[in-house]
Amino acid sequence: MTNRRNVFYALLIVFLVAGALTERSFFFHLAYVLVALLAGSFLWSWTAVNFLRIGRFTHARRAQVGRTLDESFTVHNTGILPKLWLEVRDHSDLPNHNASHVVPALLPRQRYGWEVHTLCTQRGQFTLGPMTVLSGDPFGLFQFPRKIAAASTIIVYPPTVPVHRFATPMGTLSGGEAVRRRTHFITTNAAGVRDYEPGDSFNRIHWRSTARKDRLLVKEFELDPLADVWIILDLGRETLVERPHARGNGLNVYAPPPNLPPSTEEYGVTIAASLSAYFVEKGRALGFITYMPHREIVQPDRGPRQLTRILEILAIAHSTSDLTLKQMLSLESSHLARGTTLVVISATQRDDWITEVDTLQRRGIRVIPVLIDAVSFGAPGVSARHLSELIENTGAAVYTIRQDDDLTAALSYRTGFKARIL
Questions:
Q1: How far is it, in rounded angstroms, from Cα 42 to Cα 140?
Q2: Domain check: are 149 and 196 in the same one?
Q3: Residue 104's beta-bridge partner residues?
Q4: To the nearest whole number, what is the mean pLDDT of the chain?
């Protein structure tokens, strides 16, 4: 394009010199035509990227690995001149998100739209936009870029696998009573009635009180005396083992689910997300702790919002902590009450944290370690089977996960554990 303009500039100089030497108007007329052509092409190119509106609509700001992100784009020509061609370049950093598009000729006041459906292959927080619009004149002399700086963020949650039956957490606390705290969940502990409010479910209406008071009354409930479930995810630097070029590649869309990269980090995050979804579905009060490297904690609660909080942390979680698993358990054990169930997910090859597990078991806290076998990912050392045997001697139920395991099958069985007399 620049070379083509240089040819026109050279011809313009030649015509002007020829006209000056020969004093013939013919050469000046040719020079005037070239000047008009260059000026017209410049104005055409400038108007081509202006007097238009570009709309971008993202159907959801949250996505999940293995699911599709949908976006809609529209280009509206608001000018009085047609747009011969437009090239819209998208600079989003979401992997495999190809939203760039070539827009065909647009007549004045005409619209054009297209949709983009992207399979999310990598968890994390990504930026959608900015965009650049390119266009030019019919002769290809000028090309004007127009940058549209508008951008937004999207969070891609890690994948989850269905878990049909995990080791049963502790249930009713010994000697426990109903927790004197109101909840919008329906439990077995009715605390009283109150006036109906918009949004209350009809199955909470107390019909006898309604008939007696001649106005709609609904039941209020208190939390069940169920012990909390905590999930601790070990994201220590020393636990990270991954195959070369595994990070950032995302899943293989041609492989069977869950299509995880060969990385202990990705396996740990997926297991934590899957177990979180399992316990939330079961209606348990779930808490979550990890370090990456700063402490991230979600206090125990129930419901889909709790799962969303945990998934948002897991979406950007990476193995950046310098703490060992033993140090993590030492720091967090003082906050765990008797009867709590603690699920520990780690790919560590150390065995010094087993003493902490034994101490927690003696305090009446049930510990369920989920060990990711780092050796199966290519790390040197001893298989996780040795750690599993040591942990089982403390009376804890252990799950062992290896590379390419079917996570649904590996997590959906109930392991036996040795009873201990404390």
A1: 10
A2: no
A3: none
A4: 85
- Which residue range forms the structural domain that includes residue 211? 192-223
User: Kind and range of the H or E element at 76?
Assistant: strand 68-77
For the chain, what's the residue count? Answer: 422
Q: Is the predicted pLDDT of residue 226 greater than 70, yes or no? A: no
Tokens encoding 184: 């919008």
pLDDT at 191 over 80: no
Is residue 139 assigned to a domain? Answer: yes
Distance CA 33, CA 41 (A): 12
Examine residue 300 and say whether the peptide bond preceding it is cis (omega within 30 degrees of 0). Answer: no
Strands 124-128 and 295-301: unpaired
How far, in Å, CA of 372 to CA of 254, rounded?
Answer: 24
Joined together, the tokens standing for residue 249 give 């590649």
Q: Do residues 272 and 334 share a domain?
A: yes
Q: Phi/psi of residue 207, each to 5°?
A: -70, -35
pLDDT, position 28:
86
Tokens representing 42 are 């410049």
Confidence of residue 20 (pLDDT cuts 50, 70, 90): confident
CB 158 within 8 A of CB 66: no
Sheet containing 111-119: which strands, arranged edge to edge? 52-58, 68-77, 111-119
SS3 of residue 291 by DSSP: strand
Is 77 domain-assigned? yes
For residue range 35-47, what is the model confidence (pLDDT) as tens digits?
A: 888 888 889 888 8
Three-point CA angle 402, 403, 405, nearest 5°? 70
**Within a domain: 127:** yes
Annotate 212-248 with b (16+ C-beta within 10 A) or e (fewer): eeeeebbbbbbbbbbbbbbbbbbbbebbbbbeeebee
Q: Is the pLDDT of residue 184 over 60?
A: no
Same structural domain for residues 304 and 217?
Answer: no
Joined together, the tokens standing for residue 285 give: 């009060």
- pLDDT for 2 equals 66
Those residues whose C-beta lies under 8 Å from the C-beta of residue 162, and which sit 6 or more positions away, are: 274, 408, 412
Q: Rounded to 5 degrees, what angle do the CA atoms 14, 18, 23 make?
A: 150
Q: Please indicate, yes or no, if residue 51 is contained in any of the structural domains.
A: yes
Identify the burial level of 169 via C-beta atoms within 10 angstroms of its C-beta, where 0-12 means exposed, 13-18 middle and 19 or more buried. Answer: buried
Residue range 364-374: average pLDDT? 93
| Residues 199 and 345 occupy one common structural domain | no
Q: What is the C-alpha radius of gyration for the chain, rounded to an integer number of angstroms?
A: 32
